[in-house]
Write a structure and sequence with these properties.
Layout lengths: L8 H14 L8 E2 L1 H8 L3 H13 L3 E4 L3 E4 L4 H25 L6 H15 L3 H15 L6 H24 L3 H18 L2 H37 L1
Antiparallel strand pairs: 1-3, 2-3
Amino acid sequence: MTFKANQSLAEQIAGHLAGQIIRGEMLAGDRIQELRVAGELEVSRGSVREALLILERRHLIEILPRRGAVVRELTEAGVQGLYELVQVLLGLVIRKAIKSLREEDLDPFIELIHELQLAAGERNVERFFTLCFRFLELAYPFARNSYVESVLGNLQPALQRTWFMALHLDHDEMKECLSFFKALVETIFRRDVRSALEIIREFAEHQSALVQDSIIRARQIEAAWSARRR
């Protein structure tokens, strides 16, 4: 683990563990043992405890009595609720951006779309995934509302977890994401609030349904295997 001077140690530990959860290296229900993490990263248990509180706030783990920290389960209701809230908050960001954005403010977004196209053409899912969230993070400040930015920041790791799943569930999901970002920039350029909100709604519902279907299929497979063992 490489430490960065501009982040607290707890934030860096949280980021390291979040990456493992987001990419499925730690699964729902897995315990996160403070002592093991402290030993692996050569940090104090106090810093690990702080990191776990950050991860709980960011909806990636639960801290349970007598069990400690465990990776949070993904449920259909949880995924649906996450995308419904992100849809509302992102819609607010885009509405305010359309009111205040200058044409030159779109240049970084257009450059990111070019980079997304290159990553999609190379089938570089990791790079594409990183660029998607760079795009979103670039948009958040246009809310000009620190509360909205804070909530989106805390929701982002949970959204990254489901987004990463979606990109690996369907080979065409990169095309869907790329189309979403392109259409969003076009509607912002036209200052078309209604179309922008519709684009956000359609994409949120699409990706939410994709992840929820995967959760249902996984549960059905698990139930079938359990029945065969009896």
